[in-house]
Amino acid sequence: MSKTVRSSADYTIKTGAGASGSNAIFLDSQRTIVQGSLEVKGTQTNVDSTTLNVEDNFIIVARNNSGPADIDAGIMVERGAANNAAFYWNEGDDVFKAVTTTTGSGSNNSIADTALAKIIAGTPGGGDSGDTVATKTYVDAQVAGGGFNIGFRGDDSAVVAVTSGNSVHIAGATNLSTAATEADTVTITLDSDLTNITSITSDASNGNLTLKANGTGDIVVNDTLTFSGAASTPTASAVTKLYNKTAGGGGTGLYFINSNISSGTEGELISKSKATALAIALG
């Protein structure tokens, strides 16, 4: 037999001391319907049902956070003996994070991450924007297919592995073309003359700096060639080395040394005036 209890004003059912007490009200029925808004005020709401259906388009958490406050909020999954899992908004970092955590309940204002959790997503398809999350399979396919371009910008010491078929783009200059070969070689080709270069320095400790013309071409200097003073006489070898020291009998200060000339004894190039005076003196 159905029964209706009607009141023309607020209607209160209270057991014992109410919310501050320890008594409970049990509604025992196959289905309980609340015809109107339901507001639950308390410290905890537990739903022990097999299926939870929510008709609302959005679920709002941390509803009473009037902010700005450092409060993390999201979804927590209890995992029994293992660390819990959470997908939440990290207020301190301003990012969404998927993590495992030792945080045990939803009453905490912050999540203590123990590790980042993996997220599996679908492979981007046609029409996806450039911001679509890419899967490992998708990235691997792009790299293997030669569709992966790496842009180098600034002075970065990080090592980037380049595989066959990839392009390496060096930004910030023109007339540069590149080609990559496995596994660690990147070749840079200059398509025109270098300009606005004020200094070329070898970065190898005590290493040589080699200027080499193509084929039978020459190294051409179209301006003054200046020799700085040598710190010491270089070691003689089977090539001729030119260097500057304090001028001696030759009057030039420009010396040469070669192990095949005078048994490797250094010699000084002689000036025109010294040569003329020597010729007169020798008759």
Features:
19% strand; 4-stranded antiparallel β-sheet; 3-stranded antiparallel β-sheet; 283 residues; rod-shaped; mainly beta; 11 strands
Task: Describe, in plain words, how this protein is organized in 3D.
With 283 residues, the chain is mainly beta. Among the domains are: 136-190, no CATH class; 206-283, no CATH class. Helices cover 7% and strands 19% of the residues. A hairpin with a 3-residue loop joins strand 7 (176-181) and strand 8 (185-190). It is rod-shaped, with a radius of gyration of 41 Å. The termini are far apart.
Helix residue percentage: under 10%
* Physical arrangement of strands within the biggest beta sheet: 1-2-3-4
Helical stretch tally: 2
Shape type: rod-shaped
First CA to last CA: what distance?
A: 149 Å
Mean pLDDT: 82
In brief, what are we looking at here?
By secondary structure, the chain is mainly β. It has two helices and eleven strands.
SSE blueprint and pairings:
Elements lengths: L72 E5 L6 E7 L4 E7 L11 E4 L19 H9 L4 E4 L14 E4 L5 E6 L3 E6 L50 E4 L9 E4 L9 E2 L3 H11 L1
